[in-house]
Amino acid sequence: MIAEDSVLLRVGVQRLLADEGIDTVAAVEDGEALLDAVERHRPDLALVDVRMPPTFTDEGLRAAIEARRRVPDLPVLVLSQYVEERYAVELLAGGSHGVGYLLKERVADVAEFVAAVRRVAAGGTSIDHEVMMQLMVRSRRNPVDSLTQREREVLGLMAQGLSNSAIAASLVVSDGAVEKHVGNIFAKLGLEPSTSEHRRVRAVLAYLNLGQ
User: Fold this and answer.
1) Angle 93-104-170 (CA atoms, 0-180°, nearest 5)?
2) What is the pLDDT of residues 75-86, one digit of tens each?
3) How confident is the model over 19-29, as pLDDT tens digits?
4) Who's near 181: CB < 8 A, 6+ residues apart?
5) DSSP-assigned letters across all residues of 129-143
6) Global model pTM greater than 0.85
7) Complete domains list, the chain, with CATH
8) Cβ-proximal residues to 88 (8 Å cutoff; 6+ apart), any chain
9) What count of Cα atoms within 13 Å lies in the side-chain half-sphere of residue 107?
10) Residue ranges of the HTH luxR-type domain (predicted)?
């Protein structure tokens, strides 16, 4: 489902997703309608803008947080022009499955956007680098001090939703080297294998200092 107050963007995103075989069960323009649609349709993903009526401040993000309270583990992908730090922290820290935050002006490739939609719907993460930087500045301490510089680079790319092979291509290293770094990251952050939690997402939350 899509929650976006701009009718042109709302319809445009809906048509873009339809072209990729993704059905939209509801397209709404405010937070109250978002909550009603989530409870009625139980969508695979809620794509949400931050600023919606009536005050155009943070209604969308607050509604997304409430939606995840009402429908636990509801995948939410925020698509906005703004980083609303306070509620972004609450949203990202509120669960380890299916969270994302992209900035509209930095979405430059349709294929990458659709990939992010599918990734978050599947329980993964997709967080824009600029969003990460702003949230890290907000943090009072860094929980990943034990990581090497390369491990931090790998974790930063994990936060953007890249697979191991995509990280390897970005850093121009082998897949095996990335797998080793990822294993070291999990070990240093104390993230044991779990059937109920996604370790990559938990590592990203630790990176942003949200999982403490």
Assistant:
1) 75
2) 999 998 888 877
3) 999 999 999 99
4) 150, 151, 154
5) HHHHHHHHHH-SS-T
6) no
7) 1-138 (3.40.50.2300), 140-212 (1.10.10.10)
8) 61, 78, 101, 131, 135
9) 19
10) 140-211
